[in-house]
Design a protein that fits this description.
205 residues, alpha/beta, FAD/NAD(P)-binding domain, five-stranded parallel β-sheet, three-stranded antiparallel β-sheet, 5 helices, binds flavin-adenine dinucleotide
């Protein structure tokens, strides 16, 4: 909320992610992990609750809801503010960013990432350009025709609806926001020594 829990900041750029499925949480992971104030709104209608993954590289078999529970925890552990159950009703452009309205309040941010699955209404209302196929028009960096507004996952794809692709789209959006903020191409590269710093004695082999 603008007065109490303002997601925007006077100094550091901030990010609002609309939709907490694989695409949105992946974007939030990158931006929160690398110091940007990040808020995720989600109504928990992700298709992942209907899925069981055998096709996510590096994971043999995992239930979709179990995958989401791990993802949510991971994003929270890196500092994102997850507002579960809070639906975004509208997103508007302002002079220096965006204002996001929910039933609970009004939030400001420098960047917005749409990750609302097959529902593209909010992006359309903001004025994002669509392709002839009826999906939000983005390139590999996931930025829409509206500056600093990104779109990711099922909403930018006609049929390639896979968790791994959504996660990749979200990562691309997060990384590109970080590059914009820092003014140079950003790489989120960690090395084994970082694992001990992050996880302490609970380091995985
Ligand atoms: C039956 C089924 C089986 C599947 N099996 C597989 C599989 O085996 N492997 C695989 O890779 N993929 C599978 N998928 C596809 C996979 O679930 C999707 O590709 C993936 O969930 C898309 O991620 P997303 O983040 O783009 O969208 P979603 O996962 O749909 O997430 C969008 C989120 O945004 C939220 N949201 C929407 N509007 C708002 C709003 N206004 N305010 C706040 N929150 C909002 C929704 O509640 C939802 O939680 C399956 C899908 C189905 C339906």
């Amino acid at each position: 909320m603008t007065d109490e829990t303002n997601a925007g900041g006077d100094e550091l750029p901030s990010v609002i992610v609309v939709g907490g499925g694989p695409a949105g949480l992946s974007a939030a992971l990158f931006t929160a992990k690398n110091g940007l104030e990040t808020t995720v709104f989600d109504t928990d209608e992700t298709w992942m609750h209907k899925a069981h993954l055998f096709n996510y590289l590096g994971i043999g078999s995992v239930g979709g809801s179990e995958f989401m529970a791990t993802a949510r925890q991971q994003v929270e552990d890196f500092g994102a503010d997850r507002r579960q159950g809070e639906e975004v009703a509208g997103v508007e452009r302002t002079d220096d960013g965006f204002v996001v309205d929910t039933e609970e309040g009004r939030y400001e941010s420098t960047y917005v990432v749409f990750a609302t699955g097959a529902n593209r209404d909010l992006a359309e209302d903001l004025g994002c350009a669509f392709t002839d196929d009826g999906v939000v028009d983005v390139g590999v960096e996931m930025e829409t025709s509206v500056e600093n507004a990104y779109a990711t996952g099922a909403m930018v794809r006609v049929e390639e609806w896979q968790a791994a692709i959504a996660v990749g789209d979200g990562a691309a959006a997060g990384l590109n926001i970080l590059s914009e903020v820092r003014g140079e191409r950003f790489h989120d590269f960690d090395v084994p020594a970082d694992a001990e710093r992050v996880f302490g004695e609970a380091v995985a082999e």
